[in-house]
Amino acid sequence: MKLVLALAALAPASAFVAPQASAPAAGALRADASSMDGILAPVGFFDPLGLSKSASEETLNWYRAAEIKHGRVAMAAFLGCVVTGLGGHFPGAIDLQGDSFASVGTGQLLEFWDKTPAAGRLQIISTVGAIEYVFESQQPHYLRGGTPGAVRLTRGVAPWHEEAGGPGYDPMAKYDAATRKTKRDMELQNGRLAMLGMASFVAASKIPGSVPVLAGLGFAGDYAGALPSNPLPSSFFM
């Protein structure tokens, strides 16, 4: 499960090319950010920097897609941290020398990535890149009519765009519109909380006393490895 943590420590999971966040050109379609999913009590609409005021619909969709992807990775990573913290590990060996996942996973939280063989790290990075390429290649793209966060599982349009005229798989077809919205809000809120949790883990691992609660759980803040700035191995060979 600690391999999941490595995914969260890699380069951001957002789209390869971000649209400009500057003020849209005259006539550009604007979206009402105050009516988007994920706006719930008691916080309500939260945009202290006013980023949505000058954003086009395309930019807002890019923000939302990035938030969903980061949130999903963070939720998986946080779960992996909890499971491995309780002593759970993948069975078998992590390398050709026969080292087990359990032996590599001992020590500080972020040290697992540094102990992972270089070839293994490159495999993980390549897999993340391949998944991102497939996601960004979907048509319609989420910046041009597609749904941010919707992953196409079949040929044609994105899963819940079957009404657009192509084949698709809708895993939420059994739910009505109100239930869908509730589940989307739940995913966004859980993802936001998980991102805060993973950021706390990283901060507590690198900065002594930055997260007092975690300091009491063994996070000394003395990690000196390359994460999170540089996930690449120093050598591309075993």
From TrEMBL:
Alphabetical UniProt keywords: Chloroplast, Photosynthesis, Plastid, Signal
Cellular compartment(s): Plastid, Chloroplast
Cite the Pfam families for this sequence: Chloroa_b-bind
The keyword Cell division is assigned to this record: no
Specify the signal sequence span: 1-15
Please name the PANTHER family in this protein's record: CHLOROPHYLL A/B BINDING PROTEIN
State the family it belongs to.
Answer: Belongs to the fucoxanthin chlorophyll protein family.
Protein name listed in UniProt? Chlorophyll A-B binding protein
